[in-house]
Amino acid sequence: MGLPRWKGGAPFFHPGSPMPECLVFRVPAQHPADVSEVMGLVASGAVDVTEIVAIFGKTEGNGCVNDFTRQLAVMALETALATALGCTAAEVGARIALVMSGGTEGGLSPHFLVLARRDSPAVPEGKALAIGTAFTQEFRAEEIGRMAQVEATAAAVGRAMAEAGLTDPADVHLVQVKCPLLTSARIAEAAARGHGVATHDTYASMGLSRGASALGIALALGEVDREHLTDSAIGTRRDLFSGRASCSAGIELMRNEIIVLGNSQGWTGPLAIAHRVMDDGIDLPAIRGVLTDLGFLEAGQLPPHESERVIALLAKAEPSHDGLIRGRRHIMNDDSDINATRHARALVGGVAAAAIGRTDLFVSGGAEHQGPDGGGPVAVIARVRD
Amino acid sequence: MGLPRWKGGAPFFHPGSPMPECLVFRVPAQHPADVSEVMGLVASGAVDVTEIVAIFGKTEGNGCVNDFTRQLAVMALETALATALGCTAAEVGARIALVMSGGTEGGLSPHFLVLARRDSPAVPEGKALAIGTAFTQEFRAEEIGRMAQVEATAAAVGRAMAEAGLTDPADVHLVQVKCPLLTSARIAEAAARGHGVATHDTYASMGLSRGASALGIALALGEVDREHLTDSAIGTRRDLFSGRASCSAGIELMRNEIIVLGNSQGWTGPLAIAHRVMDDGIDLPAIRGVLTDLGFLEAGQLPPHESERVIALLAKAEPSHDGLIRGRRHIMNDDSDINATRHARALVGGVAAAAIGRTDLFVSGGAEHQGPDGGGPVAVIARVRD
Amino acid sequence: MGLPRWKGGAPFFHPGSPMPECLVFRVPAQHPADVSEVMGLVASGAVDVTEIVAIFGKTEGNGCVNDFTRQLAVMALETALATALGCTAAEVGARIALVMSGGTEGGLSPHFLVLARRDSPAVPEGKALAIGTAFTQEFRAEEIGRMAQVEATAAAVGRAMAEAGLTDPADVHLVQVKCPLLTSARIAEAAARGHGVATHDTYASMGLSRGASALGIALALGEVDREHLTDSAIGTRRDLFSGRASCSAGIELMRNEIIVLGNSQGWTGPLAIAHRVMDDGIDLPAIRGVLTDLGFLEAGQLPPHESERVIALLAKAEPSHDGLIRGRRHIMNDDSDINATRHARALVGGVAAAAIGRTDLFVSGGAEHQGPDGGGPVAVIARVRD
Amino acid sequence: MGLPRWKGGAPFFHPGSPMPECLVFRVPAQHPADVSEVMGLVASGAVDVTEIVAIFGKTEGNGCVNDFTRQLAVMALETALATALGCTAAEVGARIALVMSGGTEGGLSPHFLVLARRDSPAVPEGKALAIGTAFTQEFRAEEIGRMAQVEATAAAVGRAMAEAGLTDPADVHLVQVKCPLLTSARIAEAAARGHGVATHDTYASMGLSRGASALGIALALGEVDREHLTDSAIGTRRDLFSGRASCSAGIELMRNEIIVLGNSQGWTGPLAIAHRVMDDGIDLPAIRGVLTDLGFLEAGQLPPHESERVIALLAKAEPSHDGLIRGRRHIMNDDSDINATRHARALVGGVAAAAIGRTDLFVSGGAEHQGPDGGGPVAVIARVRD
């Protein structure tokens, strides 16, 4: 076959014996509640509904406080999947992690990523994409955005790695976390028990929860020293971060839900994942580096047939706090008409589309402790074998 | 010297004899009225104020109807330049073309481009950046957005080319036009004389005026057939366009002001210009093509020392009318919170920054008949010799 | 009883015999999918779910193209009501008219209005609130925004009046219409049959559909002469309007759904409705006039106990096309950051809240042919008897 | 004369002897730089340019961080007034307080208020509008937003009252303050001197500076106890406020500039001022109370001839922090598309226009310690005599 050989280890399983395979499908959405293409995958037999582990959705809201497109997409997915699974809508959420990210600024195109796991015949090809999931216990309000959340997340990342058969942190390329936030009711309940919380600003609690989760990932993957981590470091020590974390906060849960993606000898299939850290919002070389890791050797924009091999690009975007990109002023933080995270997603979306030649890319905002200030992790899942 | 040799013809002037040189300076602005760095060029002697031909400004407003940052920048420039020139603020505008473009979405950085002309010793290097300006007569309201504006613009482009010593349309790489718009008062005045106007929607008149100006450029440069041009084609025939036009409409004038930039054997200096047409908002190869034309041979993002050789990148951005980029849905046209042109500038700004490695790029919106639907011209002025 | 006597005719039914009663409940929503208080009315027995005729929802989206809060509210209502009714979600829409209006700018408070009909003992009190519904046939795409829609709407208003027992147009105070819009697919389907449509701009089709529906209401109620109505008058003749129309366009239907509210001798219960036409966005006297019609005799803001007697205020808001309110410039039409209809709702919401002393008011935008340019109908449903 | 008698004391000056008179003119602006009507007052002789004490401008920007309409209006005013005064633009600001407030949401109409002082013949009419101005010393960065600013403001209010001949705080109805803010450079300069500042968030410093200024006014007018005022109370103790303060922060100054408006026996002329405190954003009765104080006895919206007697209405608007208005949820604080202060101005503008019957009203945002949470002071200047 004509695909460039992807760098990966040698096989150690017998060809033909059953092995887990992680499948990833990318389908468009005409509006936030348009799950027709997701369900089309089930209807066509491309995936069995019971194989679905997670669905990531890029929806066209503002990605901020009053972005109801996330909730709308979840409701549509739960309704449709409940029918297919023969369960209630509420039970869908317990089986399948639904991670919605609002904001398709610039040219970004709304879409869903469907991640599934099945047993497949092993092939002698080396490492393949692996997926593992785990949950923390439910947090009490006073734990959110604090070390308790960091440590519980780190432990859960370890369990998810084990489930995925990933033993070397270097094989982990993306850890997606869905984490809780504080509400007025939750703060009041903690106060009634005599406990204070990390912040009384419910919006700020989203950032602290994402940040604590990212630091938990960094701890699990050995990216930060345990000794530097304290409650006060969360949200302030921008030099401490994970290069593989992608965290989003949601009101509908009180625990952290963790999805680890990496490459493993114990998995089969044509897909693999790689990542790099963008130093700033225009770090095209970082994206090119990920592509090179995956065997894309062209220097410029991927031509169409190569672009199709990229199943998913996932990147975090955030405005730099100093108001500069490589010494030049940006206006994101001073724009009272368009939220700064919206500018950042548009920018990173443009840079990523320049590399990939496509716009259905999963660029999300809110990158506390997820990459350096103004930058962020970027991961690519690609088909590296036929 | 170590610069790659730029493709250009042989010299035909005697070395050392005086020749016109077009200088271009790029300076940052801390806010729309911050002209300190522009005036710093004068104060430092980098340019004599009497040499300045035009100033292009990228300001941080919304680039739409109620963008007052353009007016603020013009007022600040006129006040400062009037002092330096010893004339009134009103007289500045008659001497120097001030072209402000609002909108620095995504990561774009507010800045000014100062274009000047001086006599310099000729050097035996081939073609160099050339500049020429011309004006049409003042239009009557009923001529705006119609064939009268197309034809007057075409004729003025010819005069500006002649001033720049450009005889071959292939040597023209950018034609910047500042054109008028309709106001209620102008419409009423035309009606009083018994004439109807192209549109009663004053906002729409901006697009028609830009479109007619662009078609005038296309006509002058031989990009469209005269026979296809009619009043009704303006604003509707998206297949007719100039690949070198950049037009902006302003309320403060009733004529078209034309600035032609090209490469000429009759000019000297280290700068040259090239252009391509972006087919869509993510057409990185088009930008790479321009860079290749100018001797930038690297395939990826320009490294810092090469990036500094790029004096200016000027691109037009616009959402495609079919709501798609390479078959994938974008949401620009359906977003009632952020104007579609703002999304488009953010996107093209990201793609251009990916190529150049810098964010102070002149990406502007409103690309009627300036490149194909959803795409637009991109021109780069670079230092191609020491 | 201490309530002021409401102006109404004498009873003509025997006291105690069963009569229809129209009930209206107003409940708050914490977010667009929060239907807990709606379903609480059912759970508490305040209303039987089978009695519900219509639900109007004021949701917190932008009220423009990409306002998905309407769809989210509908999905939540359909899911919850389907369970209560023992039917499918799709069947709910066929039984209960769900009319969502996005936009709670300024101080407006998101809420639902639940309208129900039941048989109650007649009381000798004169006219009471009456409700009637009717549907047109499904429209073909080429009929939308044209006279066919006007005439079908007029006929359906007549049927809805008959159902409500309203024979005198003077007794009709509000006609709410939900109407279809054009999509690219619908336009293409019409073209395939050889028919052109009123507009190819799908957003503009919403305005034309609302406008044609409003003119249909005006025709039915004798507010305009049939001879003035033509296809070309729709959307252009701003002097032609209904003072009792409230129309909203939605993608989910192809027919007009009509709800007529008036006062009738044939109905019982403590509620009544009145309306006036606001001449502009600050026409407090019009609102005061409605209140006077309903027996609220205080001149200033209603005190709390009187405010509670106002069950619902429904008003249409729209910016004037000349950019003026009583000769003073407003900036709604020139604001490229905030859609003009959002400004208009905020303004009318402030004026209405000044009168009523509450903010959960149903102010909606898009008032083509619904009241004069810059103004709009305002109707109040109040408890006028114990 | 036919005007209602305004409540005011008996005259104690001899009729005909010269007395100071405070004149107030309200003129419209077609755009932020349109000062033609302001200069028209000078050209017509309505006011002598040397009599002008202050100009308040309501401009059509977003009223937030990147609102450059304020700077544009100031630049236009300074340029025009410099010519009229025969001084430099910089000197204009030292002579005339230019207070620009951005944001004309809803129906608010951009306009200028020109306040002037001249000597006029005394008339035996009782108290008339009086104006006094004063400045604090220049603050050091570490004083901004702290007790030093509170105390210096209180002292300056006393001096301004003395200049206006106002001895009883009850005669003071509005204190407008323009105050400085922190910038990165100012923070660094303080740090270099070994001093910390109240906040490192430059945007937050605007609120603290306004809040400290308002508390200084409250202290001077006896509205708060000195013992409750501490650095930590500034920005947090929402129960401490002035009912007569209106503060705006600007980058162009380092001192507080104070303008006191009240009613005095020592002044003459047809104008007077009154104020009340709006308890929330829909407190129409408070506005009605102000009007009653000034002799407007109608209960509903002022009819046109009475509306014209209202020269200026000045109100502060702010969203309540608990997200409620009279127990009903508003969405201002959760809207990531429109800044909360923009919603608040639109709302209060609607309520005020309902009362006055006009839209050129001076509603401004940022009401820290200026009235209660969610409410704010409202003052009216009216012609109470012929």
UniProtKB/TrEMBL annotation, chains A, B, C, D:
Gene3D superfamilies noted in UniProt: Cyanuric acid hydrolase/Barbituras, RU C (3.30.1330.160), Cyanuric acid hydrolase/Barbiturase, RU A (3.30.1330.170), Cyanuric acid hydrolase/Barbiturase, RU B (3.30.1330.180)
InterPro entries with a match to the protein in the record: AtzD/Barbiturase, AtzD/Barbiturase_RUA, AtzD/Barbiturase_RUB, AtzD/Barbiturase_RUC
Keyword field contains tRNA-binding: no
Pfam families reported in the protein's UniProt record: Amido_AtzD_TrzD
Sites marked Important for substrate specificity: T341
Active-site residues (renumbered): K178, S248
Any one of the GO BP annotations: atrazine catabolic process
Record key words, sorted: Hydrolase, Magnesium, Metal-binding
Enzyme Commission number(s): 3.5.2.15
Residues bound to substrate: R70, S101, G102, R210, S248, A249, R345, S364, G365
Subunit: Homotetramer.
Comment block on domains: The monomer structure is formed from three repeating units (RUs) that share the same structure as one another. The monomer, the active site and substrate all possess threefold rotational symmetry, to the extent that the active site possesses three potential Ser-Lys catalytic dyads. It is possible that any or all of the three active-site serines may act as nucleophile (albeit only one can do so per catalytic cycle).
Assigned protein family: Belongs to the cyclic amide hydrolase (CyAH) family.
Protein name (database record): Cyanuric acid amidohydrolase
Source organism of this protein record: Methylobacterium phyllosphaerae
